[in-house]
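Hey Z.,

So I finally got round to the zinc ion thing we talked about over coffee. Here's the setup:
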Amino acid sequence: MVGCTIPFCNNSSEKGYVMKAIPRNTQRGVQWINNINTKYKNWIPSNHSCICEVKLFVLCIFTILLLFN
Ligand SMILES: [Zn+2]
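And the result:
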């Protein structure tokens, strides 16, 4: 079972959510981690951190909002 690494999110692959690994070695991955850190202070992803597609969608919106502000 893969669980979502986002604080307070209990979604997991077992519940039918698509889990995405955070690409830590790419600029996009670093950007995600920075975005999450902006919302959740002191959040540190592990090597195998995954986030569910729901949160990914929210993060995408969040990134778009940041870009247009
Ligand atoms: Zn999640």
